Amino acid sequence: MHHVIYFPTVMRYCKIGSSNVRCTYSSHSSGFSLGESVLLTDTKSRQYLVRLKEGGCFQYHAGTVMHNLILATPNGGAVTSSKGLKLTARQPLLWEYTLLMPRGPTPSYPKDIWSILGLLDVSPGQRVLEAGTGSGALTLHLSRAGSCVCA
User: Fold this and answer.
1) What are phi and psi of 121, to 5 degrees?
2) Is 131 exposed, middle or buried (0-12, 13-18, 19+ CB in 10 A)?
3) Looking at the structure, do residues 98 and 76 belong to the same domain, yes or no?
4) First to last CA, the chain
5) Given this model, what pLDDT does residue 26 score?
6) For 17-26, 62-71, 82-91, 99-108, which range has the lowest pLDDT when averaged over its residues?
7) Is the pLDDT of residue 19 over 70?
8) Residue 1, Cβ neighbours under 10 Å: how many?
9) What does residue 88 show for φ and ψ, rounded to 5 degrees?
């Protein structure tokens, strides 16, 4: 029996079989998908992390942007707010997502996670059991490091 798991924030597909886990990366420069996180950056380099949903609307001080407009925009393309200000829409990098993601009371920041990965000497192909009730930031970084994560 095989299960395929997709981690949208890191574009990583994992096929889990009876005795192994095989992970591959997917890169897409086309449009975005529902449920995906998008990083919007304004002309003053302010960043906003938005999770796309059907009929959704992103509201901020310079107007609103409908999620349907973002869905029709290619990765790296520009969208215009209701007040005429331009925002760049792109997929966030892992460290950007980790800093901007919603989190509970005990966040793990990239600088701390990188120290943990270095001290553990995590390398591609290693199996790692990660258990926690936090934001999942450490799990995302372990996965990006190439390890097979059981969370």
Assistant:
1) 55, 50
2) exposed
3) no
4) 19
5) 43
6) 17-26
7) no
8) 5
9) -90, 130
As a whole number, mean pLDDT of residues 44-63 equals 95
Domain count across the chain: 2
Range of the domain at 72: 37-90
The residue type of 132 is G
Tokens found for residue 107: 């966040």
pLDDT band at residue 68 under the 50/70/90 scheme: very high
Token pair in block for residue 143? 């996965």
Mapping DSSP to helix (H, G, I), strand (E, B) and coil, where does residue 23 land? strand
CA distance 145 to 110: 13
Half-sphere exposure of 57 (CA within 13 A, CB side): 6
Give the pair of three-digit tokens for residue 42. 């304004």
Instruction: Identify whether residues 23 and 61 lie together within a single domain.
Output: no
